[in-house]
Amino acid sequence: MAYPIIQFINTTFTYPNGTTILQDFSLTIAAGEAWAIIGPSGCGKSTLLYLIAGLYPPTSGQLLVGGQPLNRPRPKTGLILQDYGLLPWATVWDNAALGLDIRRFYGPDGKHAPINEPFCDKQTHVAHWLKRLGLDQLARHYPNQISGGQRQRTAIARTLVLNPDLLLMDEPFGALDALTREDLQRLTLELRGEGNLTTLIVTHSIEEAVYLGQKILLLTHPPTTRPLIIENFSAGGLDYRQSREFFSRCNRLREMLGNPT
Q1: What are the angstrom distances between the C-alpha of 182 and each of 25, 161, 211?
Q2: What gap in Å lies between CA 167 and CA 126, rounded to an integer?
Q3: Which pLDDT belongs to residue 81?
Q4: What's 161's DSSP letter?
Q5: Which domains does the chain have, with CATH numbers?
Q6: Which residues are CB-contacts of 234 (< 8 A; sequence separation ≥ 6)?
Q7: Given phi > 0 = left and psi -120 to 50 = alpha, else beta, which region is 171?
Q8: Crossing angle of helices 122-132/92-106, nearest 10°?
Q9: Separation in Å, CA 98 to CA 39, 82, 103
Q10: Phi, psi (5° rounding) for residue 155?
Q11: In terms of Cα–Cα distance, which of 62, 52, 63 is closest to 200?
Q12: Which alpha helices (H) appear in the chain, and where do they start and end?
């Protein structure tokens, strides 16, 4: 049985303005699971993700990631954002290598790099991921010289070179055209299968949530006090997107979003 990689234990999070997003909230996510988080705007989807990323501290209760209380971003967690977060003055290669360069600068301090993980050969490792993501011919290009999908692939490469065990994605494909979005969704599934990654994706798209999330966390208007989880174990199947089960699940989720209980 997979060990729990994320545990919210009676967790409350309140913004400084007094808005409470989570209240006495408990949730366990096992290693290797694929989750999608969906809900209306302002329900706290991104807030939940940033808590797991260690960017926000809980107001009360506990949040454990990798079995440890979380009080800062952890080296084994990867975060991918919608706006790519690439350095415009750096090439695709240098953007992909950025995290490795930071780790080498600080050393294995447990904050910027795992304490017990040996440094990899940068040239070989970056080259591997650029080739795996179809970017090897663009290595010397700058972000303004490549497409949105290629920029997002570069952001994914920058994350994967760090060998994460947990991948958090906040609307990573929302600004892309439909074909590019579907291509990167398939890539996400492939990468998860290859590395047994735990993945959490925040999305506004019902279809994307149903395609990528083996478990779907539905958030409603805050504060959220208990998780509403939809089991969706067929997610990621080769022909799932064209199946009757897929359309039925999408319709069911659409109804639940309109009439949450």
Answers
A1: 33, 23, 10
A2: 18
A3: 84
A4: T
A5: 1-73+212-261 (3.40.50)
A6: 240, 243, 245, 246
A7: left
A8: 140
A9: 33, 18, 9
A10: -65, -40
A11: 52
A12: 45-52, 92-106, 122-132, 148-160, 178-195, 206-212, 244-258
- pLDDT, average across residues 47-65: 95
Terminal-residue alpha carbon distance, the chain: 31
Question: What is the C-alpha R_g of the chain?
Answer: 18
Q: Both tokens of residue 75?
A: 């080296």
Per-residue pLDDT band at 17 (split at 50, 70, 90): very high
Whole-number mean pLDDT of the chain?
90
Q: How confident is the model at residue 110 (pLDDT cuts 50, 70, 90)?
A: low
pLDDT band of 59, cuts 50, 70, 90: very high
Closest CA to 66 of 50, 51, 77, 55: 77
What is the spatial distance between Cα 83 and Cα 93, in angstroms, rounded to a whole number? 18
Phi, psi values for residue 24, rounded to 5°: 50, 50
Give dist(CA 247, CA 161) in Å, integer: 36
